[in-house]
Design brief:
The protein is mainly alpha-helical and about 70 residues long. It has 2 helices and no strands. Keywords: Membrane, Transmembrane, Transmembrane helix.
Length: about 70
């Protein structure tokens, strides 16, 4: 569900899925593997969103300079 919400907010991240169902992956009791997988995927998602916001902020700051350079104005 969180993946669908993220996709609705950020439609450009179609290759990213968040599976928070705590499915056991390679561990005997199912706890450690699922917890690690959940934290890892959430961490990747947070990092990706943070990088996207930083890139958007840099573009917004630099866009006036880019426009001036393209028009040749000093």
């Amino acid at each position: 569900m969180l993946g669908h919400i993220a996709l609705a907010i950020f439609p450009g991240i179609q290759g990213v899925t968040l599976d928070l169902s705590c499915v056991a992956l390679g561990s005997g009791d199912g706890k450690m593997g699922a917890l690690y997988t959940q934290k890892t995927e959430v961490g990747y998602f947070i990092a990706m969103v943070t990088i996207g916001w930083v890139a958007a902020l840099l573009l917004a700051i630099c866009l006036p300079w880019i426009r001036r350079a393209m028009t040749g104005a000093d």
